[in-house]
Automatic annotation (TrEMBL):
Region (Disordered): 1242-1283
Name under which the protein is recorded: Cadherin domain-containing protein
Primary localization class, coarse: membrane
Subcellular location: Membrane
GO-annotated biological processes: anatomical structure morphogenesis; cell migration; homophilic cell adhesion via plasma membrane adhesion molecules
Pfam families attached to this UniProt entry: Cadherin
Gene Ontology CC entries for this record: catenin complex
Biased composition annotated in UniProt, kind: Basic and acidic residues: 1267-1276
Limits of the Cadherin domain: 24-121, 122-236, 237-346, 356-464, 465-569, 570-678, 707-818, 818-933, 935-1055
C-alpha cells in the first residue's frame, strides 16, 4: 500500500510540473523586395508554441545589421538598404524563445528584384569614322549596355534621343534590341554635315517589386566623323567665261583665265587644263597649269566674226575612286573687238539681196506726211561705227532723213517735214542728194541722188453760204411741202456737180427730209407736225464731195399754229350734293391746247337743254353753275334716287369752232318732311294653335344697295317659312331710307303672344304679325281672339296706328316623348339578336302611331365613348344584340343607345320627340381571359448566405383583362430546379421558394421568397417556375432565373469605428463601396470587434459585391478595387481600415490556472491509468466519453469571443497568454445556440452526461436529411481521426461533420480562453 502511495505522489509531482515544449519556427524562406524602405516591415517570423507561451524574437548572424525585429510580435523591419545585385539571397539567423526554451534557426531571405539599376554602356570609346560612300543599311557601330537587374528590368532597349545637326535623323537609325547603329540615308561629305553628335539612350523595360512600375535609363554621346573620298569630278568656278580681244592683237596677248576645283574638299587634287575644241581653230591657246588663255595667231574680225567659242577641259592629276580620270569641261566665249578700217557705202536691197547703187527714186502725194520709201540701205562693215546721213539740194528743207545717224547697217528713209510745200499745182518733182559720212573718220564718205515725184489729191471740202437758216412752216402741212432749198460750193474741179446732201440727226428724218442731189428740204410726215407737242425743230444739213469731205449748216424750222385742239374739261364727270331747298354754286373748269392768247384757245360755257336745265344757269366766261329756283326731292322721280343730270358744253372761238361736254350729276339730298300712313284703317287675321314663328333671316340681296324688289323677295321667303298671322302695310313719302324707313310695333293687346317683323315692299313697308317663337298658342288654354294695336314709326319718330284682330284655330300639335328608361345589363357572351331592353314612348294626342328610329350607338372603351355596332333597334323599340361584332367586356364595358320616337300621324309641328331616348347598357364580364405576365429584363440575384426564410429574392407581375373577382390572381411556385454553373447540369430540388401575392391597383405582384436557408456552396442559378391563376382556374406560367452568389464571394471589411457609427454612415459607406467597385453591395452583418484585440478595427462587416447581370466580385477583386488610390482615401474617411479575415480576440489567462490545471491533469492521468489497467471498456464508451468532454468544453465558450474566419492552429498570430487557436473550429450556429454560449457557468452547474446526450440528440433531430445518424456520433473508429492530436479536437471535428447538413449556414469561430487541451 505504501508503494502504491509513493507512486501516486511521484505521478502527482510529475504532473504538477507542466510539460513545456520548445517553440517551432514554421517558415524558413521569405521573399522580400529589395526596395523595401528603411523602417518598413519586410516580413514576420512565423512561429508557434504548443504550450501557447508568449514568444520573444531575436536576430543573429552577419546579416542581422540589415534588419531589426519586434521582439514581441516577430515583425522584421529593414534597418539598412538592401541590394539584390550584391546578393540574391541572405542568410539571417533568428531566435524564438518562450521564456524557458529558445529555438535558433537560419532563415533564407530571397531578395526580389526592384528596378533600381540603370543600364551601363560597356563601349570604351564612342568616336566613329565613316567613309561618305558607305552603303545605306551598313552597320557602322554597335552600342552595348548591360543592366544588373533581372527580367524586364534587365532587358535593355536602345534609341536615338538627339542628333545634331537635326538632318542626321534622316541618316542614322539604331536597332532598339541589338544597339547596332546603321545608315538610314546616304552620307555626303560636301552637301551634308561632315560631323554628327548622337545622343544614345539605353532604357530597360521597367519593373517593380512593390508599388508602381519603374523605368531606368542612361545616355552617352557619340561623335561621328564623315571621311571624304574622291568620288566627284572637278567643277569650273567663276563661270560663265566670257573674254574679249581686239582684232589684229599680237601673239601671246592674254585674254582671260579659267579655274577648276576638285569637288572632293577633303582631297583637293591639282587640275590640268587643255583646249578640246574651238569654233575657229588656231587663234588661241591655254596654259596647262594655270588655265590662262592667250592669242596664238593674227585675228581679223571681218573674217572670223564677232565671237570665237572654245571648249576647255580640266582634268584631276590623280584618278578617282574608280581608277578613272576625273574631268570637267567649260565653254569660253571670246568676243573679237572691232577697229575702224572700212568706209560706208549705199546699197539698193530687194529681199535678201543688196547691190551697190547711187541713184534712187520715190513718190509722194501733195500735202501728205510720213515716210517715203526709196529702197536705200547704208552699210559700214566696221562693228562699232556711227555713220552720219545728211541731205543736200534745192528742196532739202521740205524733207528729213531717217536715221540721221546709222550703225553698221541701216535702212534709209525720207520724211516729209513741210507738207504745205508739197503742192501738185505748184511743183510736180523734187531732186535731193543723200550724203553718208563716217563720224569716226570723216574722210570716209559716200553720196547718192534721190528723185521725188509729187502726186495730186482732193484737198478741199464743200461750204455753205450761211452757218444758220431760220425757216417757218404751218403745223400739219401736207407731205412733200417744200420747206427750203439750200446748196453748198467746192473749189475742187473734180467735185463739180457731184456734191450730195443729207439731214442730221437721224431722228429728224421722221418729220423732214432733203433731196440728196438738189438740197431741197420738204415735209415728210403731216401728222407728226403738231405745234402743241413741239413748235421748234433744229436740223443739220450736211454736204459731201466725192472723197466724202463734209460741210454743214444749221436749219431752225418753226411750226405756226392752226385751230386743231378741242377744249378739255378738267373732270370726266362732276358730282355735287345739295339739300332740298338749298343753294348750289360751283365752277366748271376747261383748258384749250392751242396757242395761248389767240381765238383758238378762248372758251365759252353753256348748258345743254334738258328736263331740269331750266332750274340751273351757268356763267359763259367763268363756268360757275348755280340753281335758279328751290329744289324739292319729292318732285323728282323716285327712281332717280334724287339725282339731276345736266350736260355742260365748253366751245373755243377758233375757225372752225371746236367743243366738248361733261355730265354734271346733282344729288338733291332728302330731309324728313313726311310722316308714315297705313294703307287700311284695320286688319283681321287667324292662326292655328301650336304654330310658332320661325325667323330664318333675310335672303342675301341681289344688288347693292338693295332695291325694293330685293326686300320683297326676302319678305316672301320669310312668309313661306314663318308662322305668320298676316301683314299690315304703311308708307312714308320721303324718298331716302333714313327718312322713309318704317318700323312696326305692337303697343297693346298681344299679351306677349305675338311679334311683328318689319320688311320693305315695292312701295312702303309691311309688318308681318307672327306668333312669338318663344310662345306656343294653345287653343284650350290661351285666348281664342286677340285685338292688337299696331304702330308705324319712321326713324325720326313720326307715327301712325291701326287695329289688328287675330283669331286662334284649333289643331293636333302634340309631340311624342319617351318614358324613363332603366339601366339594363347584358353578359359579354350574349348571343346575336338576344333581347337587351325596350324603349317605351307616349303621345298626348289620341290618334297617334309611334315608331322608333336608332340615332346612335356609342360604346365606352377605355373611359371614352366612341361609335360601335354592337346593338340594333327594332321599330317597336326592342334593343337586341347586333350581328356585326361580338361583345367584349375587356374592350368596352358599357354602351349608350340613343333613339327617336316618331308620330306618323302628326298634323303640325315636329313629329319626333323633343329629346332622344337614351338607354344605358352595362356589359357584364365573364371569365374568358388568362392572366398575362409582364415582361421584365431584370436579373435576379440571391446571396445564399444572407437568404433565410422569408427573404425576398425576385418578383413577377401579371394582370388579368377580366374584371372584379375574375381578375384576381394568385401566384404559386410549382417547380424549382438548379442549373450548375460549371457543368450546366439541371437538377430538380425541393420547393425552396414560395410566392406571396400582392396587388397594386389592377396589377398583381408576386414576391418570390425563400422558404428556408440556401446552400452556400451551390454555384449557378435556380430555375423557378411560377404560375399565375385567376378565380376561374385559368392560369399561365413563367420561369424565373435566380442567380446564386455563393460563400466564395464573401468579403470581410474591417472598420475602425463602432457598429453604431458604421450603421449611421451605412448609406454613405454603401455608396462609396459601389462607386469603387461598380457593383451593388449586399451587407450580411455588421459586428463588434473584440475589445481586447490588438487589431485597430472596432467592427467588421460581411458583405457581397454583386453586378446587375448576376455575377459578383471575389474578396481579392474587391480588395484590388477598394485599394485604388482614387477610392481608398474616401473609404478611409468613413472608417475602412482593412479588407480580409477578422483577427480572433486574444484572452489573457491567469497564470495560477496553470497550476490548478496541472494538478487536475495529473489526477486525470492517474485515473486513466487505473481505469485502463482495471477495466475493459468498449470503444463506444470511449467515444461517448470524448463526445461528453467535447460538449463540456464547448459549453464553457464565451460568445463575446466569437469571430468569423479561419485561423492557423498553433501559430503566434495571436500571442495573448492563454490563447488556444486549436478551439477555433467552425461550429454550426445551431449548435452554438443550443449550447447557450452567453451563459458562463462552472462545471458543477452543467448537466449530467445523459442530459448532455439528450441535448445532442435534440440537436440532431433537427436534421431531416440523415435519419440514420440521429442522436448518435458518427460511427467511425477513433483511430481514423488520427489527423487530430487531441481527443477534444477529434470530437469537435466529428461533431462539425455531423452538422454539415444543418439548416443554419453561418459558421462561428470560437475561442475558449478558459480551457487548455494540453491540460487535458
Amino acid at each position: 500500500m505504501g508503494g502504491l502511495t509513493g507512486w501516486l505522489l511521484l505521478l502527482c509531482l510529475v504532473c504538477s510540473s507542466k510539460a513545456n515544449f520548445s517553440p517551432a519556427i514554421n517558415q524558413k524562406v521569405f521573399h522580400i523586395c529589395e526596395d523595401v524602405p528603411v523602417g518598413s516591415v519586410a516580413f514576420t517570423i512565423l512561429a508557434s508554441d504548443q504550450d501557447g507561451d508568449t514568444l520573444t524574437y531575436g536576430l543573429t548572424g552577419s546579416n542581422a545589421g540589415f534588419f531589426q525585429v519586434n521582439t514581441g510580435n516577430g515583425q522584421v523591419t529593414v534597418k539598412s538598404p538592401l541590394d539584390r545585385e550584391a546578393s540574391v539571397t541572405m542568410a539571417l539567423g533568428v531566435t524564438v524563445s518562450d521564456g524557458s526554451n529558445t529555438t535558433p534557426e537560419t532563415l533564407t531571405l530571397i531578395l526580389e528584384d526592384a528596378n533600381d539599376n540603370s543600364p551601363v554602356f560597356e563601349n570604351p570609346n564612342f568616336d566613329i569614322l565613316v567613309a561618305e560612300n558607305t552603303a545605306v543599311g551598313t552597320s557602322v557601330f554597335k552600342f552595348t549596355a548591360s543592366d544588373r537587374d533581372v527580367a524586364d528590368a534587365g532587358v535593355v532597349r536602345y534609341s536615338l534621343v538627339e542628333i545634331i545637326p537635326s538632318q542626321g535623323s534622316e541618316v542614322f537609325e539604331i536597332n532598339e534590341v541589338s544597339g547596332e547603329l546603321k545608315l538610314k540615308g546616304q552620307l555626303n561629305y560636301n552637301t551634308l554635315s561632315t560631323f554628327y553628335r548622337l545622343q544614345v539612350q539605353a532604357r530597360d523595360l521597367g519593373g517593380a517589386c512593390s508599388g508602381e512600375k519603374v523605368f531606368q535609363s542612361s545616355r552617352v554621346f557619340s561623335f561621328v566623323t564623315v571621311e571624304d573620298v574622291p568620288d566627284l569630278d572637278p567643277v569650273f568656278v567663276g563661270g560663265p567665261y566670257v573674254g574679249s580681244v581686239e582684232e589684229s592683237s599680237p601673239a601671246d596677248t592674254s585674254v582671260l583665265r579659267v579655274t577648276a576645283l576638285d569637288e572632293d574638299k577633303g582631297i583637293n587634287d591639282n587640275i590640268l587644263y587643255s583646249i578640246e575644241a574651238a569654233s575657229v581653230e588656231g587663234l588661241f591657246k591655254i596654259s596647262e597649269n594655270d588655265g590662262i588663255i592667250s592669242v596664238m595667231s593674227g585675228i581679223d574680225r571681218e573674217v572670223t566674226g564677232d565671237k570665237v567659242t572654245l571648249t576647255v577641259k580640266g582634268t584631276e592629276s590623280k584618278p578617282n575612286v574608280n581608277g578613272q580620270p576625273a574631268t570637267a569641261t567649260a565653254t569660253v566665249e571670246i568676243n573679237i573687238n572691232d577697229i575702224n578700217d572700212e568706209e560706208p557705202k549705199f546699197y539698193k536691197c530687194e529681199g535678201s539681196s543688196c547691190v551697190l547703187e547711187t541713184q534712187f527714186t520715190g513718190e509722194v502725194f501733195e500735202h501728205s506726211l510720213g515716210p517715203i520709201s526709196i529702197g536705200m540701205t547704208v552699210k559700214d562693215l566696221d562693228k562699232f561705227v556711227q555713220t552720219e546721213i545728211t541731205l543736200e539740194g534745192e528742196d532739202k528743207d521740205v524733207f528729213s532723213v531717217e536715221p540721221s545717224t546709222a550703225v553698221s547697217e541701216s535702212t534709209v528713209q525720207l520724211l516729209v517735214r513741210q507738207p504745205e510745200n508739197l503742192d501738185f499745182e505748184e511743183k510736180q518733182q523734187m531732186i535731193l542728194q543723200v550724203i553718208a559720212t563716217d563720224k569716226g573718220k570723216p574722210t570716209f564718205q559716200a553720196t547718192a541722188t534721190v528723185t521725188i515725184t509729187i502726186k495730186d489729191t482732193n484737198d478741199n471740202s464743200p461750204t455753205f453760204p450761211q452757218n444758220t437758216y431760220k425757216i417757218n412752216v404751218t403745223e400739219h402741212s401736207p407731205v412733200e411741202t417744200e420747206v427750203a432749198t439750200v446748196t453748198a460750193d467746192d473749189p475742187d474741179t473734180m467735185d463739180a456737180g457731184k456734191i450730195t446732201y443729207s439731214l442730221l440727226p437721224e431722228s429728224i428724218l421722221q418729220y423732214f427730209d432733203v433731196e440728196s442731189n438738189t438740197g431741197r428740204v420738204y415735209v415728210k410726215n403731216q401728222a407728226l407736225l403738231d405745234r402743241e407737242l413741239r413748235s421748234l425743230y433744229s436740223a443739220t444739213l450736211q454736204a459731201r464731195d466725192t472723197d466724202g469731205k463734209p460741210g454743214t449748216t444749221v436749219l431752225e424750222i418753226t411750226l405756226t399754229d392752226i385751230n386743231d385742239q378741242t377744249p378739255i374739261i378738267n373732270r370726266q364727270e362732276y358730282r355735287e350734293f345739295v339739300s332740298e331747298g338749298g343753294k348750289l354754286e360751283f365752277p366748271i373748269e376747261a383748258t384749250d391746247g392751242d396757242e395761248a392768247g389767240t381765238e383758238n384757245s378762248k372758251i365759252q360755257f353753256s348748258i345743254k337743254p334738258s328736263t331740269h336745265s331750266g332750274s340751273f344757269s351757268i356763267d359763259p366766261n367763268t363756268g360757275v353753275l348755280t340753281n335758279s329756283g328751290e329744289l324739292d326731292r319729292e318732285a323728282l322721280n323716285p327712281e332717280s334716287n334724287g339725282r339731276i343730270i345736266l350736260t355742260v358744253i365748253a366751245t373755243d372761238m377758233g375757225t372752225p369752232a371746236l367743243s366738248t361736254s361733261v355730265s354734271v350729276i346733282i344729288t338733291v339730298e332728302d330731309i324728313n318732311d313726311n310722316a308714315p300712313t297705313f294703307k287700311a284703317p284695320s286688319y283681321s287675321f287667324s292662326v292655328k294653335e301650336g304654330e310658332k314663328g320661325k325667323y330664318y333671316g333675310l335672303k342675301p340681296f341681289a344688288s347693292s344697295p338693295p332695291t325694293w324688289q330685293d326686300y320683297n323677295i326676302s319678305i316672301h321667303s320669310f312668309i313661306q317659312s314663318g308662322a305668320s298671322a298676316g301683314f299690315v302695310h304703311a308708307e312714308d313719302l320721303d324718298q331716302t331710307p333714313e327718312f322713309n324707313r318704317i318700323s312696326f310695333s305692337i303697343i297693346d293687346g298681344s299679351f306677349g303672344s305675338f311679334i311683328v317683323r318689319t320688311s320693305a315692299e315695292e312701295k312702303g313697308y309691311s309688318g308681318n304679325i307672327m306668333v312669338d317663337p318663344d310662345i306656343e298658342l294653345d287653343y284650350e288654354s290661351a285666348p281664342k281672339k286677340f285685338t292688337l294695336r299696331v304702330e308705324a314709326t319712321d326713324l325720326e319718330l313720326e307715327k301712325a296706328q291701326t287695329v289688328v284682330e287675330v283669331n286662334v284655330l284649333d289643331v293636333n300639335d302634340e309631340r311624342p316623348e319617351f318614358t324613363s328608361v332603366q339601366v339594363v345589363s347584358v353578359a359579354e357572351d350574349a348571343v346575336t339578336d338576344a333581347l337587351v331592353g325596350t324603349f317605351v314612348g307616349q303621345d298626348k294626342d289620341t290618334n297617334h302611331s309611334l315608331v322608333y328610329e336608332l340615332e346612335s350607338v356609342n360604346c365606352k372603351c377605355s373611359g371614352e365613348l366612341e361609335p360601335c355596332s354592337w346593338f340594333t333597334l327594332d321599330p317597336n323599340g326592342d334593343v337586341r344584340v347586333g350581328p356585326a361584332d361580338p361583345l367584349d367586356y375587356e374592350e368596352c364595358d358599357q354602351a349608350v343607345i340613343k333613339a327617336q320616337v316618331v308620330d306618323l300621324f302628326t298634323e303640325k309641328g315636329e313629329n319626333n320627340s323633343v329629346t332622344p331616348g337614351e338607354m344605358v347598357i352595362n356589359i357584364g364580364d365573364v371569365n374568358d381571359n388568362t392572366p398575362e405576365f409582364y415582361y421584365s429584363n431584370s436579373v435576379f440575384v440571391v446571396v445564399s448566405e444572407s437568404a433565410s426564410k422569408g427573404t425576398s429574392v425576385a418578383g413577377v407581375t401579371a394582370s388579368d383583362r377580366d374584371s372584379g373577382k375574375n381578375s384576381v390572381i394568385k401566384f404559386d411556385v410549382r417547380k424549382v430546379q438548379f442549373e450548375d454553373r460549371v457543368t450546366n447540369a439541371v437538377t430538380d430540388t425541393r420547393i425552396l421558394f414560395e410566392a406571396v401575392t400582392t396587388q397594386q391597383q389592377n396589377i398583381y405582384v408576386g414576391i418570390i421568397q425563400t422558404t428556408e436557408g440556401l446552400d452556400l456552396k451551390l454555384k449557378g442559378k435556380y430555375l423557378v417556375t411560377v404560375t399565375a391563376t385567376d378565380t376561374g382556374n385559368l392560369s399561365n406560367t413563367t420561369v424565373l432565373e435566380i442567380f446564386t452568389i455563393d460563400e466564395g464571394f464573401r468579403t470581410e471589411l474591417q472598420f475602425r469605428t463602432t457598429v453604431s457609427e458604421v450603421e449611421q454612415s451605412l448609406d454613405e459607406i454603401k455608396r462609396k463601396l459601389s462607386a469603387a467597385t461598380g457593383a451593388s453591395v449586399d451587407i450580411v452583418s455588421i459586428k463588434d470587434q473584440s475589445s481586447i484585440s490588438r487589431n485597430a478595427a472596432q467592427s467588421f462587416m460581411l458583405a457581397y459585391f454583386i453586378f446587375s447581370n448576376g455575377t459578383a466580385l471575389t474578396s481579392s477583386e474587391v480588395e484590388k478595387r477598394l485599394s485604388d488610390q482614387e477610392h481608398f482615401p474616401g473609404l478611409y474617411e468613413v472608417g475602412l481600415v482593412n479588407i480580409g479575415s477578422v483577427p480572433v480576440a486574444e484572452t489573457k489567462t491567469n497564470p495560477l490556472v496553470y497550476g490548478l490545471l496541472g494538478i487536475v491533469g495529473g489526477l486525470i492521468i492517474v485515473l486513466v491509468i487505473l481505469t485502463t489497467s482495471l477495466l475493459c471498456t468498449r470503444r463506444n464508451f470511449r467515444r461517448k466519453l470524448k463526445a461528453a468532454n467535447a460538449m463540456k468544453s464547448t459549453t464553457m465558450l464565451n460568445s463575446d469571443n466569437q469571430k468569423g474566419g479561419a485561423v492557423v492552429p498553433g501559430t503566434n498570430k495571436y500571442t495573448m497568454e492563454g490563447a488556444n487557436p486549436v478551439l477555433n473550429l467552425n461550429i454550426s450556429s445551431a449548435l452554438a445556440l443550443d449550447m447557450d454560449l452567453n451563459e458562463e457557468t462552472s462545471d458543477a452547474e452543467k448537466s449530467s452526461l445523459s442530459s448532455l446526450d439528450h441535448n445532442y440528440d435534440t440537436i440532431m433531430d433537427g436534421n431531416d436529411s440523415d435519419d440514420d445518424k440521429k442522436g448518435a456520433m458518427w460511427d467511425k473508429d477513433v483511430d481514423e481521426s488520427s489527423e487530430y492530436n487531441e481527443p477534444l479536437g477529434a470530437a469537435l471535428a466529428q461533431l462539425g461533420q455531423n452538422k454539415k447538413s444543418s439548416t443554419a449556414k453561418i459558421d462561428l469561430g470560437i475561442n475558449n480562453p478558459m480551457f487548455d487541451t494540453t491540460d487535458l
